[in-house]
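3.2 Worked example (two chains)
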Amino acid sequence: MTKSFYLKLAFSNVRKNARLFAPYILMNIGIITMFYIMHAISVNEGLNTMPGSDSLKFMLSFGTYVIAIFSAIFMFYTNSFLIKRRKKEIGLYNILGMGKRHIGIMLLLESMIIAVICIGVGLISGMVLSKLMYLILLKILSFSVTMGFTVSISSITLTILFFSSVFFVTLIYNLGHIHLSNPIQLLKGSAVGEKEPKTKWIMTLLGLVALGAGYFLALTVEEPLQALLVFFVAVILVMIGTYFLFIAGSIAALKLLKKNKAFYYKANHFTSISGMIYRMKQNAVGLANICILSTAVLVTLSTTVSLYIGMEDVLNIQFPSDVYIRNYDAEANDIKVINDKVDLLAEKNNIKITDRYGFKYMYISTLKSDHQLKYDIQYDVSSKRVDITFVTASDYEQLSGENLTLDPDQIVLFTNSENYGFDQIKLEGQTLNIVNELDHFGGITKASQPLNTEYYFIVKDEKTMINLVETATKKSDRLIDYQLTFNNSGNNADLSRFNQELMSDLTSNISSTSVRSKLLAKSDFFSVYGGFFFIGIFLGALFLMATVMIIYYKQISEGYDDKIRFEIMQKVGMSMTEIKRTIKTQIVMVFFLPLLFAIIHIAFAFNVITKLLFLFSFTNIPLFIVCTFATILAFGLIYLLVYFLTARAYYRIVK
């Protein structure tokens, strides 16, 4: 056999199997395009001119790695569908005289043809679309940076090397699969799994336990920091439960339906359920994958869209005041210099200062148990952790204009969440009487669900403050710090100059001083949240693409498996109307099961996801609910469209 013969045969096979290869090639082109665009943007020099460029470049690089990992998994998984469907064809080649070495050459050339098409077209489309996606990113981040048309050589090189490696690994897998099979096994390869599986009650029970445990963890988590630890454990448990229930639980459910004579002994139910029982073992993994990918799409898009839309709210939560100045181990001279600098620079830049609050304070972290607060020496991440800030009555009087007369064992209390509601509280055995509870302190107001629980203790004087802190911590070297907050107004150019000069001057000339500016942090803030949204779009599209491909190949596989069975049934008297009704019942029962489970997963994960969003200072739960419902609705419509398209393909094969 000549080399040209193998090449012609490879081209012929790709063309004749277009129904199988075309979606695979299109998916790979889309994945390669996304990978190139993400990497090309992450190394684009235009990012260096943006505020917060380091954070944005890190996130985009991280997104590139995530896309690479999932791309390899999806490409390998969809390839397994292809090789399974082609086993009979390859077995015929083997029986007709082609040795496995010749078949290997044919598969090698097919892989090379597909790889060249996918990588070539993917790179071209990536180069064409990269500038458009870059401009979309700038629009998301509200930046205006000029950029000409550029082609990233490093991105081209990395894309070619990475995806060539993935195609090579899939080729090795295919060759190994063929090498270990004999011609008879290959001819019957597509019929594997026709033996009725046994009901695996233990696996079903384990699936229910794993799923229930994952749901329980997600529902019972109370604090955001706990959610960060619990989330990944819950995800693993839910994934295990999903796989076990689809593999074993689905068979158990079908057999229970089979025992229901009133339901089972109807023409459409009889053929659908009996057919699904026989092949559920091989279909269940695909259904579980569809369910998990659908859940990933819903979670990724709903959270990133919520964060992006709610960016301004999050910024306002993190910065109730425009400027925060902190001086550690405060001295009277430093405090005077800080206030003088603020006044001087404000006057110089035509800035108006309002809502100015300055006070000295001491700070400790405690653990709360009932009405007692214990010093948290190890800074434990606990749901009962309370951060306490001590302020003197004289400083509070300057802030509010209210006169306070307190004894050493008396405090005025402010909490950043709900009111404490009791007359006494104990701090390391020291009983403190609460004479009043405030609704706000300076520029700080209450939040419905704050990230950290904070108490402000307003005490008699500086001596009382020091005694309380030193008795609680059992240390005599605790320092008194100073905080100044205020709002500023003026035109944008003057505000930017004022904030930059203030930060540079104070941090350079006064030791142990930090300055946080809402205006200066806004660009970094938008880079992070806009970057999340941009990556979320890419990952959502990637997961959606993989979901559609798995659904398509699953329907195609089932169509070929059902073709002979329905031909036999038609010959023994089943009409085309009954066959259509049977097909519809079977597809609806199986097809929408993963979507139903995905929505259930989202419902149970709602609590833990909202707690994770609190870590980003996102507390607008109604907005998240709206985004989640909108995402489910949009995904459901796409899922329905895929259903109609794949159902038609399935019916054409069966017919």
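3.2.1 Second chain
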Amino acid sequence: MVTIGVLGPMTATADGERVALGGPRQRAVLAVLVAARGRAVSEERILEDVWGGGAPATGTLRSYISVLRRVLETGGPERLIVREGNGYRLRADAVEIDAERFGELAERGEGLLRDGRPEEALPLLDEALALWRGEPYGEFGETGFAVPEQARLGGLRLAASEHLFEARLALGGHVALIGDLEKHTLEHPLSERGWELLATALYRSGRQGEALAALRGARRVLSEELGIDPGPGLRRLEAAIFAQEESVGDSPAPRREPPRQREATSPPPARMRNLPHALSRFVGRTSEPAEVEALLTEHRLVTLTGPGGIGKTRLALETARARPDGDGPWLVELAELEDPSLLAVTLSGVLGVAGATTAERLGDVLGDREVLLVLDNCEHLVDVVRDAVRTLLSRAGGLRVLATSRESLNLPGEAVYEVGPLPVEQGRDLFLSRAAAAVPGWTPDPEEELTVRRLCRELDGLPLAIELAAAQCRVLSVEQIAAGLDDRFAVLRDGPGPDRHQTLRRTVEWSHDLLSPAERDVLHRLGVFASGFDLDAAAAVCERPVFAELSALVRKSLVSVEAGTSPRRYRLLETIKEFTRARIDPDAQAAHRAWVLAEAEAAAPLLRGPRSAVTTRRLTAQQPEHRVALTSALLLGDGDYALRLAGLLSWFWYGQGIVAEGLGWISAAIELSPSAGPELTCPAFIAKCRLMYLAGDFPAARDAADEAVQAARKLRDPELEAESVLHRALFGALCGETNFLELARAGLEQARPLGMAWLEAEALMITGMVLRFAGLVSEARATLSESVAIAEECSYVFIRSSSQWLIMKIDLDLGEHERALETGLDMLLHLDENGDVTSWVVAVHSLAPALALTGSPTEGAMLLGAAAHHGSRIGFSPAEMDPLDAPRQARHVRDSLPPEEFDTWFAKGRSLTRAQIRALAESWQRTRAR
């Protein structure tokens, strides 16, 4: 029998004898197969997980598989690792894995506990927890396959620990449990069940005041850390203790309450989400949000189906707003997505996981995050959405999906909710509500009331059609509206297609017919936008001032206003946008591309100055437009445009960790324009080498820098040549070349005379970096200090922080730990203010060893956990970008604490928000200033 242990350092035995699993890569290959839990893993996936970007030929992998088979398969010819398709599978029936054994025991123990048999549950839970020897898959760090398993197993361990406490409590061990439970709530302050158990033990021990104090502590922690109130379990327990009930805590942790009850007891808390605020009152469908919520409670995938304009999106948003999910809800508007291959990138962008370019990778990164994902308007991407949702739900155990589509996704376990037309009375209420906004003070007489009801029936109860009709009350009477609709519906019902769809289209066409020629032209052109737009953008795409026409379109409900925006932003309803797409002039698409390019040209230099933070936010909002413009250009074969735009967006992509998508656009543009001039290829190759650096592919970064140098010399542009030479020196050094110092100094000498402060600061930073590689530490520090001074003078936050990061490394190497800590705190706070993502994660990771080496190892462990968590959310790892120092720095922190203590603080760090990390850094800085 073969046994494999992953709940701690990885071990294996065959027939009771310990076997040697070989070096780190070979052990990692086996770990990938174990983590797959009996599923086949393709060769490509194993190579990516184990070797990352520098994967070897498949022959190396196959030789590792052969060795593993030889050491593990000692009992006969039957294979333990079997070939399946283009990959391998570890046979679950032929191997015993401690993680699976733990899960089985914990599940059985929980079942016995729920059946009221704590005396039988106790030994099973004890046995399950005794299998843990340390961090699961710990030796494999933060690799793509290890992180989700660590998160899954960590969650199971927390649950099993609390079930064990519950069993001991049920058997009368409340007095002896208090100390253990106090420690448990310190280690897991966000676990409401842990606080319940502690308060119950205190109360049963006759310590009512301390029990209430514990509940107040729980309330404070949840409010400060998450901004939420305690859940129903804690509230019921507090009420029971106040009432001095005898049976306090007798029942296990309650299941989730029905939706109506939860709505009555506590309003949904504010949390991280991206749902738009409603622009109008929700009329009708009073019971439907609760019905959809009940389905979401029981099913992980719920799809709202029905014809266009039936109100699927509004119902989904109203349902999502009322839910108390810990993460989200996150709205992904798919109607604006034209290219199915960008679905995973779009999902990861909304969820803040910019580095996840496939559904598989995104699912692994999400792990057990409790996320509600609202996928709106899936009908034009049903096949690709179906595959993506199937993958995400199978890999992310905490994910729930609420989709809207004109057809179901047809997946196992999917609950389909057919959104029906509004009943006449609800349609009448909706019409009058919207008409009152169009004509304040208007009250229908009895005859008009009858006409409104007839009109709603003839509109088939479609909310969008009713709203569009009501908007015309500003210029037409109810009788005129009804008469106009009757004429048009009679014609359309004779044509092909569903009646309701034809009715909606006629409603839109009729509203369109009422527009002036100038208003129609503006509406058609506005359909080119992928998302919201402001007045200047509208004027740019329409190639003239459009305030009058835009105002008219807003009044006629064909364009909506995004409330609270300044300057005001506008958006076309999705049905209206779909209506305009067939009428969009190629000239409008060209104007849109020109506007996007002009915006990027204006933004690029600002990313290196005092307006970098606000510019980054603006570019983030414009990302859908970047994608539309790049797609449009590539479809037209205009690789030159794509090269130009990619070069301008490169710093934005770098700072936000948009690595894979950026590289995809650059590669497509280069392939499409092989003979493009150096003025286009040089910035594109500089962009490519930077993004390859973030991906940890240093040879590819060096090659791209080489191309940039050659292009810059052909162009005879001293600025681009200096920048290219400096990058070539840096990536040559990272690849082990020997002439890197000479190249860097040459680049610095080229940059200095140009009078560009930002370029000189960047040149000094790179030169200082390679000086450190060469062992010239004193010269490196002086060079980097000069870079900091110049970057600070011109407000170039990224280079200022990058040079500080390198100075911090030098000080850590020299034993100047206090000075390194001071520098690191200043660096982190500046990056946080600037809105940077990737460099901020690196700063958090680098600050951890400085804290550990200055007597604060627990804080260091917390920051390592925070860096791991926030990096994983965007698919970024400091260790991949900085393999020379980052792993060594992490070891400093690990070695400064006993393993169990390190794991506790590391786990606590994973729950820290960016705002909380900033508050901690400010507190540490104030303490040091005293």
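3.3 Remarks
Residues 251-271, 487-502 have pLDDT under 50 and may be disordered.
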